[in-house]
Amino acid sequence: MTSLDQTQLLSAVWRMGHFVGATLCDDDGRRVEVKSSGEPTAQASLFKGAVLVIDGVVYCGDVVVGAESPITEPVVMRIVECSSPRLLDLAGDMIPQMILPVPQPVLDRYQQLVDGGVDRCKCGTIVAQMDSLHRTDLLTRLVIERLQRKCSVVERLYGQSDSDWNQTMYAMLFRAMGDHRNQDAFERLAFAVPYYTLSRERTSGDNVETMLFGASGLLRRYYWDEHTRVLQQDFEYLARKHSIRPMMGGEWAMTGINPNNTPLIRISQLAGYVSHTDFIFNKLLQCRTADDINRLLGGESARVSDYWERHFTPERTTVRKTKRLGATKINLLGINFVVPVMFAYGRQTEREELKEQALDLLDSLRVETNYITRHWTSRGVVLNGAFDSQAIIQLEREYCSLRGCWRCPIGRSEIKKSLETL
Q1: What pLDDT is attached to residue 406?
Q2: Domain residue ranges of the chain, discontinuous segments joined by +
Q3: CA torsion angle for 245, 250, 256, 262 (degrees, to 10)?
Q4: Which of 4, 96, 171, 238 could form a disulfide bond with 190, CB atoms 3.0-4.6 angstroms apart?
């Protein structure tokens, strides 16, 4: 275990109040009694308002755990897990320091968690064996964390959109249409041809598709194809008319992607959808079930134009086939587009009922199937819907894959159980 891991673990143990009530000794040999460990802050190593009695004198102030870099705020005590060089405060005085080793049973359990991961330390089994109350509490906490992260994306887009919710929704839809490698490129496309510009050409679906393809920069890849050459010529007129600055084209990932999910197919579907669907934002806020999302995003509107029914790329001709959004993609758009926008709008407008509606809507959607959810279900974790799968994805990506057991709700619970055996 690295010293960084031990410092983070010591911070977690201190936060749990394990040393409250204990009488200890600092590096200067003074008697220290911990009355309160203080309140944790966003900076994991800093605790505000701790109360220590040092040689009979009560000190109320900040405590820092670890911290090898210079300390810029006044603290009453620095806590380390092993002998460390003393630090000075801004006035040049020696900061009081106390060595508090992490209890061995906690170290052992933590090592199991970090080294084993979901496979060997049986975190999956822990979740699978939870009673319904604790399972619901854990999954709800993780889902809220994940939604807050997605809401931060929505709020960033809202700022970039000059507080226009139609443009925000439009940009989030574009972002959600791409696979993870093309999300940023789709977002840039949504601002290259903003919602108000596209709305002015909605009566001509061909112009909408021309603007989106031209602004993407992808037409330059296929200069030899007659269809794309005509599109490029038409785009040059529309670009001058609407002052559109196209992307470079090299920003898109084109290889290793399912043919139905390539940017070319998705752009054509987006053009069809926004050309034929009115009042999208209002309809989005009215969604309450998976069927509502299917009605919002499914049907004939989100289908490719005639040319793309016979092509995946200009150099690849196929049998004519209607390429519309499939059930799996609509479900993912519900998870990654409809629910986050609804939740973020509810948070922005302080409408708690919309936030609750977003959570209920998420619960009505199907489980997202990917390598993460398959991994956890193989450990016996039952996922009943998208609410559960989003929670597990949050757990894997934000804690497990980052070896963040010291801050993970499951890891902290296991650490706390180890402390209770002492």
Answers
A1: 83
A2: 3-102, 141-364
A3: 20
A4: 171
